[in-house]
Write a structure and sequence with these properties.
This protein is α+β, with helices and mostly antiparallel strands and 492 residues long. The chain has 16 helices and 16 strands. The structure holds zinc ion (ZN). Zinc ion binds at residues 23, 26, 28, 40-41, 43-44, 149.
């Protein structure tokens, strides 16, 4: 609820580009980044007489998303023509689905602020993408038809989202499911995941819906958040001054970070939907649906709950690790190789992810590393058993935390095991009292003033002495034991 006594009612329409090899109604490759207008044929250009043929792979992907979100999959659904004129659509209509969608009535769940939320999904349907307009510097516009006919699913939520945070978390949740299913790469920058939002506000406690406006072009999680905030503020402002909300479509302008009014919103009847005469109704056999259901992986939310339960790791860790299927697989492989689960989670979330972010600069000399495979691949810098070996040394205090981080970097570089690297670089943690005492005596002798002040009661200098010993030992002294010995030496 808003501080001015208003609450938002938000619904999302998410378009996800399916990673099929070919387009939805023709054999043209469905790939991103080719030279303009090179991946086209009479069907996707909408030339007279060309007839569409439905891509079975696209149907399978859409059904799997429906099943993963608890939808009912229709045995019979119907493609419809959505008529509109725009230069990115040479046919002047888009083949979509209207009153008989493929999937209906599902939901997704996510945790936000320690609470589980469930957002209903009204429908998921198949449709074809339109082309892309490129506005050139000379003031003209160019059109690239490569994207015409690339398969999309549109995922329509119920208006059950109540805040910008919830909207972005819902979108993150959908993206995670799409990537687990390996049906959409979720790349918002390249437009393979796009989001339109409907927003209205009402006074808290009211049940009737206010007039909604639509925001298009929200092509990052940040834009979703900012666009909704902007529009909520505008509507609340208008209503509190006694004004009326007009049903409009706004475009989010990422450069100026503001909404620009695009046009008054169309009604469904403006599109003159009618059943697509060139395609038969889509029949999906019950056995095929069941086979697709069996092919589903463990879904992210189930996996998150299982990791928390089984490994006893905190909710935050489970959520980060389940962000990508490959990352969760890797965590379970490291834990399975004998590593302490919480330490494994820490090491993966910090060192492993950092190493992966710092790019492929380090040579991948690791033959056991998880190999990358297309947009869903996950390439860990260390194979699970070697990371588990390093974590075991940390766990039994054979190396200090900072020495272990040095060892990690060297293991990535050289491909050796933790034991080899620790021995070769002399990183083993020194816990032998005699060796530690020798360093401590030297440090005390070199710092007589500090020693005197410590003896006079300035015990906060303990850290200074431990630090000096760590320096002298090149990071290998056991810091805890060193602290205890310093205290004894200086008589406290
Ligand atoms: Zn084509």
């Amino acid at each position: 609820m808003n501080e001015r006594g208003y609450e938002a009612v938000i619904g999302l329409e998410v378009h996800a580009q399916l990673v099929t090899a070919t387009k939805i109604f023709c054999g043209c490759p469905a790939v991103y980044g080719a030279d303009p207008n090179t991946l086209v044929c009479p069907v996707c250009l909408g030339l007279p007489g060309a007839l569409p043929v439905l891509n079975r792979e696209a149907v399978a992907m859409a059904v799997r998303m429906g099943l993963a979100t608890g939808c009912r999959v229709a045995g019979l659904s119907v493609f419809a023509r959505k008529n509109y004129f725009y230069p990115d659509c040479p046919k002047n209509y888009q083949i979509s689905m209207y009153d008989r969608p493929l999937c209906e009535d599902g939901f997704v769940e996510f945790e936000l602020g320690g609470e589980w939320r469930r957002v209903g999904i009204e429908r998921i349907h198949l449709e074809e993408d339109a082309g892309k307009l490129l506005h050139d510097a000379g003031g003209g516009s160019l059109v690239d038809f490569n994207r015409c006919g690339v398969p999309l699913i549109e995922i329509v939520s119920r208006p059950e989202i109540r805040s910008p945070e919830e909207a972005s978390t819902y979108l993150v949740t959908l993206r995670r499911i799409l990537r687990y299913l390996e049906i959409c790469d979720g790349n918002m920058e390249e437009g393979s995941l796009r989001c339109d939002v409907n927003v209205s506000v009402r006074r808290a406690g009211e049940t009737a819906l206010g007039t909604k406006t639509e925001i298009k072009n929200l092509n990052s999680f940040r834009a979703v958040d900012m666009g909704i905030r902007w529009e909520m503020d505008r509507q609340i402002e208008t209503l509190s001054k006694g004004g009326r909300i007009e049903q409009v479509t706004n475009l989010w302008d990422a450069a100026s970070k503001r909404l620009v009014e695009m046009r008054s919103k169309e009604q469904a009847h403006d599109y003159r939907y009618f059943p697509e005469p060139d395609l038969r109704p889509l029949e999906v056999a019950a056995e095929w649906i069941e086979a697709l259901r069996r092919s589903l992986p463990e879904l992210p939310v189930d996996r998150e709950r299982r990791l928390r339960r089984h490994y006893g790791i905190p909710p935050y860790d489970a959520s980060v690790l389940c962000g990508e299927k490959g990352l969760a697989d890797y965590f379970e492989a490291v834990a399975g190789a004998g590593a302490d689960a919480k330490l494994a989670a820490n090491w993966i979330m910090r060192e492993v992810l950092e190493e992966m972010k710092s790019g492929p600069a380090a040579p991948r000399s690791d033959p056991g590393a998880v190999s990358s495979a297309g947009p869903f691949g996950f390439e860990a810098p260390l194979d699970p058993s070697r990371l588990a070996g390093l974590i075991a040394l940390v766990k039994k205090n054979a190396v200090s935390g900072s020495a272990a981080r040095d060892a990690f970097k060297e293991m990535v570089r050289s491909g050796e095991t933790a034991e080899t690297v620790v021995a070769r670089l002399g990183l083993a943690q020194e816990s032998d009292s005699a060796a530690l005492e020798k360093w401590i005596d030297e440090v005390i002798a070199e710092n007589p003033d500090e020693a005197a002040r410590y003896r006079a009661g300035k015990t906060a200098l303990l850290g200074f002495f431990v630090g000096q010993v760590m320096k002298k030992s090149r990071g290998t002294a056991n810091p805890k034991l060193t602290g205890e010995l310093v205290r004894v030496k200086l008589g406290t």
